[in-house]
């Protein structure tokens, strides 16, 4: 498998870096948001920010599904996991995500709860078939990338009458969050904190296509370039954004056309439409309640909804008041400006959304970038 | 070894470990004489005493112990037995010692097929033999089904240090070179590829190996220019370098371009959401050496089968925060941090 190297190929990267430098006007600054945690992680991991002109600033967006999951919902899952006969199945990403008082699925498992790490919701279905006497709850999280597999599992469970399986649905929607961020950014235009363009999601867009972003680019007059997760992808997308900004365009462009089409993946979109419906409102950690921003199981599959089968009510949990995640996710502050960063808040003791997963802005800065910070007294 | 000539009283084809095999009675004696004695076969063990008694040269001794648990027990390139023998041999050799003797303690789970135990024991015998090491004492306990994962092995080893070289992390000075003996992450990926719930097709095999010969060669060539050596096992290259940085109050700057990695291993890590820098190795060596001797040591390592792909991957630097930094392939910089908690694959 050679393709990884092709997309990180250094001479090409250096050429793109030079082109970016040439395209950047020294009379202004550029603030681009990479929406996805995957891009945040890649920027830090490949050291890309070091190589960009100083007047290009990257703002790390909310596209990290583990980060934005509210602590109350993690608590609800842990509460359920502690009951007899319940097996919670979750992706590895979620195991360390903190609920209230430092609780996590990993901790609950250590104290005896039956929590299993899976790689696909179909693994959870298999466990349900293997243990007909237990209740198997799939803790579903993620943006549109992980939503179709959940839809498929729900359809199979219904078809095959797998009665001891249910889904605790926490799927959230990219376009809704993007609209919210841009609406807020507009109100900050006067403070020069506006966002000049967005690096759009890779895998999410492979599912939903470019189309859902068209209206966003138009309404907010902001360029959006959908980009893959490799070094060359990101550099090329930044160059495309720069060119749009410099020529006052606000189009949706697709850098990641080896995986993303205009219309997206029809069968995945159909499966999602069948299995889910919009929730009126949903809490995003670090951001707050956003309307029409998340999915719940549709009526057709309501018997498979863990929230209907069990008491999964989420008690609101307030993050530490000193946590600056809200400001960071909106591009108003940097992780190192938070008083808690690196002190009380570290990847093994996360206090806010941005430190929860490796893809969060604070976690990425801690893990990869903190050598650039001044030594604190 | 009169027992091997008698008819076997245990069924090595279909039999399984039973609680009686750990009870100290005749069943246990049979297990030991049918499986362990023939597999480990050496004069000191076959004296069949509660302890092994031996002479050593005058000088310093190196002494190390390690416990081994691995799932699955058998993986491409080895099994828990080879890990248990080579792992402890490596721990001893890293101190500059020639490994001599090992002990092996087994915790067996009731129901473990005897043929699996036999394979593991034979592998241990073969590994020890080819390393010139003897397994001279041991112990066996059996626990009820469900109380262990097939078999757990603890090995303890002893070796003699025949030179005056002192190896220690606190000798590392800024400017010292960091040499890595070969491709990273093979072992961890080989194990993951066989986990029940993953099982992906690959031909990646574990790199598990005894490093004592390579280490002796390095010491002969580098002598007291060698500051310290480490085998980057659990936690991978990243954890080993961080540990060295902290113990020696220095930092490291590593070059991503120089770190050897196999293409399929890199691809598997990408697909599993793992960073290969944190994935386990079982036959790799990090050598920190004074710059004057680096080229000679590198040349010597490349002349040995276990060091063919050795590279100078970076240097020690002055750094009050003891960061391990990496220059990425495109020339950016980042930290290689400590691993926080267990390595969990990412999906979303
Ligand atoms: S460092 Fe922690 S507390 Fe501070 S903003 Fe980031 S996540 Fe919140």
Chart the SSEs and their pairings.
The complex is a heterodimer of chains A (377) and B (348).
Chain A: H1 3-6, H2 10-23, E1 30-36, H3 37-45, E2 56-63, H4 65-68, H5 71-81, E3 86-91, H6 105-110, E4 114-118, H7 121-130, E5 135-142, H8 147-159, E6 165-171, H9 174-187, E7 197-200, H10 203-208, H11 211-220, E8 224-226, H12 231-246, E9 252-254, H13 266-275, E10 276-278, E11 281-284, E12 288-291, E13 295-297, H14 306-309, H15 325-329, H16 353-356, H17 361-369
Parallel strand pairs in A: 1-2, 1-7, 3-4, 3-5, 5-6, 7-8, 8-9
Antiparallel strand pairs in A: 10-13, 11-12
Chain B: H1 26-40, H2 43-46, E1 60-68, E2 74-75, E3 78-79, H3 80-93, E4 98-109, H4 114-130, E5 134-143, E6 151-161, E7 177-180, H5 186-193, H6 212-222, E8 226-230, H7 236-248, E9 251-255, H8 263-272, E10 286-289, H9 291-302, E11 311-317, E12 324-327, E13 333-335
The complex binds iron/sulfur cluster.
Give a concise summary.
The complex is a heterodimer of chains A (377) and B (348). Chain A is α/β, with parallel strands linked by helices.
Descriptive labels:
heterodimer, A: alpha/beta, Rossmann fold, 5-stranded parallel sheet, 40% helix, B: 348 residues, alpha+beta, 60s Ribosomal Protein L30, Chain: A, Phosphoribosyl-aminoimidazole Synthetase, Chain A, domain 2, 7-stranded mixed sheet, 9 helices, 22% strand, globular, binds iron/sulfur cluster
